[in-house]
From TrEMBL:
Pfam families: TetR_C_11 (PF16859), TetR_N (PF00440). Residues 13-73 form the HTH tetR-type domain. This is TetR/AcrR family transcriptional regulator. InterPro entries: Homeodomain-like_sf, HTH-type_TetR-like_transc_reg, HTH_TetR, Tet_transcr_reg_TetR-rel_C_sf, TetR_C. It comes from Pseudonocardia yuanmonensis.
């Protein structure tokens, strides 16, 4: 009969949350390339073994921390119209991309993923795909209502791309009304004429 783990073998949720916060803060300060497990452990006030009990290495630790911050930030609106649902999604994307940690981490991790296919795959599996899966029902409902004129995957791409490009690549602040204008432009691109 297997004994129930006790002591250090039990992963304590509060400690995991503390470590996750430390990962994100260290990642925002140091970047992925210079992120060290020792620095994360020190910031979290734990030993390195606490990190390795949770994740086998840096890529898994980073993607798990990013997932914790990113996936719950996706709303699943059901207002009854594509335009209103799009507006909620656009606002949520804006809030996510301008989060103080995500704004510093995402461009760095994205560029690192270009050079590191394993990291790219892990980010897709733990952050990108789950975020898309959460938003997908919005577009599935739009298809059922006859509002969506394009493939759901294309619609999912289009919601985030303009904001990411403007905020993370061009570093241009949003003007008043930009999110409403973007929502209207997306609606024209996605809807039946």
């Amino acid at each position: 009969m297997r004994r129930t783990p006790t002591g250090a073998a039990v992963l304590q949720p509060a400690k995991t949350a503390s470590i996750t916060t430390a990962v994100l803060e260290e990642l925002a300060e140091s970047g992925y390339g210079r992120l060290a497990m020792e620095a994360v452990a020190r910031r979290a006030g734990v030993g390195k073994s606490a990190l390795y009990r949770r994740w086998p290495g840096k890529p898994e630790m980073v993607t798990a921390a990013l997932s914790e911050l990113s996936v719950p930030a996706v709303p699943t609106p059901d207002t009854g119209t594509l335009r209103a649902d799009l507006r909620v999604l656009v606002e949520a994307m804006h809030e996510w991309l301008t989060h103080p940690l995500i704004a510093r981490i995402l461009p760095d991790v994205s560029s690192e993923a270009v050079r590191n296919p394993d990291l790219a795959d892990a980010l897709r599996r733990t952050v990108g795909d789950p975020r898309r899966d959460m938003a997908r029902p919005v577009f599935d409902r739009a298809v059922a209502r006859g509002e969506l004129a394009v493939d759901v995957d294309l619609a999912l791409d289009l919601v985030g791309a303009p904001l990411y490009w403007r905020l993370s690549v061009r570093h241009v602040p949003l003007t008043p009304g930009y999110l409403n204008d973007l929502t209207d432009a997306l609606l024209r691109a996605l809807s039946h004429p």
